[in-house]
Amino acid sequence: MAFHFKSINIINPATFEGAVVYAIVFLACALVLNRMMRMAVERALARGSRVHIDRTRVKFISQLAQIIVYIVAFFMYARYVPALSNLGNAGLASVGVLSVVAGIAAQNTLGNLIAGISLLLYRPFNVGDRLQVSAPTGLETGQIESLSLGYTIIRTDDNRRVVVPNSLMASQTTVNLTRDDLRAICSVPIVISLDSDLDRARAILLEIAGSDPKSKKIDGCPVTHLDGSGVELTLSVWCDDSLIAGALKCDLLEAIKRRFSAAGIKMSPVDRVITIKN
After folding, report:
1. Is the pLDDT of residue 192 over 50?
2. Can you list the positions of beta strands (E) in 7-137?
3. Measured between alpha carbons, how far is 145 from 122 in angstroms, rounded to an integer?
């Protein structure tokens, strides 16, 4: 008889034992369902090389769905447990006040969540894209490693991780270096003295750019500034992508220094010239 009474308590959500059992059951169901969703997402992403799948959207929706599963499981659990239902009805006003306080305290977190949803909807960038963003350390360039509900993580070329809140990602100006056209232009400003041969200097610059294998197309080499300190020529060269543009600029600068020294063309510091803004 005692065993039968105890069994009734276990399956009765109105008792403490029953409430604990129901909590375990609902939590286990939520964990199993989330595990199944994660496995489905992993399988879908594994097929990404054969089937076109938006990795950013799949990961974001997966995270959001897992949170929704836990919320739904809690409300379903509260529906079966009379104590929670009575507590909710009795403390409705208190819950409302606490919700306002919690909303104010977590406004940054909620802002990141809403901004993350807007990034998913408008899709200015995806996981794997290369971006230029503003950070406390200055302008950072890297590849998006992950886009979660609250933060965007960017892996830089020197293997650092820049963690940017989604609210900041949605509000700042971001340069997406990975789109349909991956080409990038390499601009090399060179300042020569006023008494140097301008045509000879331009011819050397164009020759150096044309002979570099990283160069795909020479955009031009016009005079971009002129004052008492010298003449500024800006050599512009197209290359395959932004990474190659950085390496190409280093190669061009070294070659220009050698050729100008051999030709007797005097160079002036670039920082002495103030570039005219349009």
Report:
1. yes
2. 130-135
3. 19
Residues in the chain: 278
3-state DSSP assignment of residue 222: coil
DSSP H or E segment with residue 227: strand 223-227
The per-residue pLDDT for range 24-82, each reduced to its tens digit, is 888 888 888 888 888 877 777 676 554 455 666 677 777 778 888 888 887 777 777 77
Q: Are the C-beta atoms of residues 187 and 242 closer than 8 Å to each other?
A: no
Taking alpha carbons only, the member of 75, 66, 77, 72 closest to residue 32 is 66
Phi-psi region of 264 (alpha: psi -120 to 50; beta: other; left: phi over 0): left
In sequence order, what are the beta bridge partners of 187? 236
What's the token pair of residue 262?
């051999």
Among residues 65, 159, 153, 53, which one has the least CA distance to residue 112?
A: 153
Residue 67 structure tokens: 């949170």
Residue reference for tokens 């932004």: 242
Q: Are 184 and 192 in contact (CB under 8 A)?
A: no
Residue type (1 letter), 73: A
d(CA 11, CA 20) in angstroms, rounded, equals 10
Give the Å distances, CA to CA, from 50 to 45, 46, 69, 160. 10, 9, 30, 30
DSSP class of residue 274?
A: P
Tell me the CA end-to-end span of the chain in Å, nearest whole number.
92
